[in-house]
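Late entry, written up from scratch paper. The run itself happened at the end of the previous shift, but nothing got recorded in the book at the time, so transcribing now.
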Amino acid sequence: MTQKLPNFLNGQWQTGSGTGTPLFDPVLGTELVQVDATGLDLPAGFAFAREQGGAALRALTYRQRAAMLSAAVKVLQANRDAYYDIATANSGTIKNDTAVDVDGGIFTLGTYAKLGESLGDRHFMLDGEAARLGKDPLFQSQHVLTPTRGVALFINAFNFPSWGLWEKAAPALLSGVPVIIKPATATAWLTQRMVQDVVDAGIFPVGALSVICGSSAGLMDAIETFDVVSFTGSAETAAVIRSHPSVVQKSVRVNIEADSVNSALLLPDTAAGSESFDLLAKEVAREMTVKSGQKCTAIRRIFVPEALYTAVAQAISARLAKTTVGNPRNESVRMGALVNRAQLVSVQEGLVYLKQQTEILHDGATHSLVDADAAVACCVGPTLLGTRSAQGSDDADRVHDTEVFGPVATLVPYRDLAHALTLIRRGQGSLVTSLYGSDPATLASAALELADSHGRVHVISPDVAVLHTGHGNVMPQSLHGGPGRAGGGEELGGLRALNFYHRRSAVQASTSVLSALSESTN
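Output as recorded:
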């Protein structure tokens, strides 16, 4: 009988009382562990986190909480090999893809540890300068940021069980807010193990860090007025969360990261075979295959001048043809599996849907699996589609509206730059777009034109060919999120991430009181 993973809630490890949901190896099909949250006293667990974990965290300074993040980094680094093994078994990822998740999560945690050190020995932050409220400067207003006296509930997606955990938890814990993590069931094992290692190390106050694996039933019902909720996943689930009575009636703060049909744009006047041309082809192929295309920031639409459609299709297809697909335990494999059978079916159905308005430029079905049984393994080869013509780009509404969450992208030709920008905006808001060209002025202008509808604009020119961090890589120093269909949320962005976990208030008082206030932050 496989192990049932314990949950950590109310300051103790607890195993659910139900039959449990099994997690499987997406390549071998073997059962790994089970998760279950049946019978947990959620209201009591949330209350414990607020009252015990929250009070203990707020009693510490930013510098002290930053030291705890640093200690957690050391624990995670010491157990890194175990996390890689779990990711291979439960997510079906090759080592390089696992690094994006595991090492990326640890790096983000370490980044916030350093940022927290810079905040010093204080318990709140000033927001801007004091403002005079009348003719006499004696009475002024000073805005302050103080940690919210609630919990942060994280409902995470399956594709990044490590990074998705720590990119949310790091700024929350640094802010002094306890966190309760609900990982996606399919890949909950890695999240649970990381939390267990940190909890068992006794780094944070009891109640500061909790994890619930299994069904999400009842979680939103336990939310109170000063709690915050951060969700990563589908737009459908996001709508349910936004409309939940706890959110609507109690004005609970919610951050959403949802669907995103991200784009890459090759600017006009780019010659076939030029460095910018090659940079686009390389980045598209990489984004299509990293984590088998299961990234919320992956490139889904590639916009190119109509005259370069065939040349770009050939360049990208040539790179995709070299991608070996199959068992991530085989060193020759460069792309592993989708996370489970349901995801495989979803990608297959999405391809059928998009193919009705596109042509196949590179067929993923031509990839034979390495060390994997096609009848069992949740593997699929990378597929590049295309809309044939600029007119076809206008007519292919499914390409602009549909995100197939796997190694699938569509090449979209455009007439001129204005046409390209119009087509990109049909994505209705995205997490990221990347631009490829060599003229700084044109790149800067296009970046500003697209900034209003994207959380991040990643500009790749020949001078940063070996320096840029990648279209789909989310760095903790930069904003992660996007407007419109991308969810309208914001995460990371350096210390900006702490704003979500603080409450802004104006203190109106005499200059002597405000001076005392300011001195307490030094």
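The domain at 263-475 is CATH 3.40.309.10 (Aldehyde Dehydrogenase; Chain A, domain 2).
(Scratch paper discarded after transcription.)
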